[in-house]
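As a warm-up, study this chain.
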Amino acid sequence: MDAKHASHSIVATLMMVSAIALAACSGYEQGQPGLASTQGHNLDAAKTALSSSQDFNGSLSRNYYAIASRRAGSQDWVDSDYFARKSIAASGGQTVAPETCQTPKTNYQAANYPALGPSEISCTIGSSVDPASWLVPGNATPTEGQVAVMNDARAHLVSALDNGGRTRFPSLAARTQALYDCWVERSEHEGANEFNGQCEKGFTRDFTDLNVLLNPPKQANAYFAYNSADLTPEGQQALKQSVALIKDGTAHLKIVGKADRSGSPGYNMALSQRRVEAVRAAIIADGLPANRIDVQWTGEAQLPVATKDGAKEARNRVVEIDTLMPAAQVADLPAA
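Now compare it with the structure written out below.
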């Protein structure tokens, strides 16, 4: 997937959360970029300091240590040291904010970076890279391309964290933040190739789930004409909206088909099944895998509107669509 198409996909996912002013982050501030000379010491210290707590900071410390260990395994000593120190800070209970990707604070001289073009240089202070920033391609134009997508992603992530993510779903929230930081770090090395890469896909998956948990979708309904299993345009739109909210995550859709009481119980059971099959096919066509669709049909039983036998009722000719999150996504998660 190229950066342009990736941008559209990620923005569609992230816009599920309403934009609000970001809360100020306080606590841990990275004082310098990672150093190869202190990497071994800090990685060992991070391991010793790891918290077993199931709260947000405990989970975050384990996630950052996992990233630091992975970078060490690739002999990326500088970034390993950087994330080891972030892990130590989280273990100590400090507030550690997601990474930033921002515009230059001061004028830079491209000649100081012979391997990079001006659009590839992030924040600089004199001849030193601002430790809060990354050499992400395109950082000089933060309102365009992949950097704009990453900045937008961070804004929505901080909004979700500040509005209950850290306290209500600490493990998922911590892994989401760590995967965002991993996405930023990998983009410095991989550039546009990191779009649709492991860290970006992991972040999009976990952020989608976090958003669904924080903002549970209401039940959607696809209604049908009398004695019909053909989806109406309104029903198709309800399905598309339900799929769009969860497609990039792990949640399931539970669909339950029903029929009014104007026919025999046997006929209505078969009709409700046909309606479920029509909805299931449309959901798969919209991009949700079949293994994330749970189906049931009840005929003229368990109807939304109670009626006498033989009565025609439009609100009972329906397939109800509910969003279900696997319990594993709320439990303590493995580190990123």
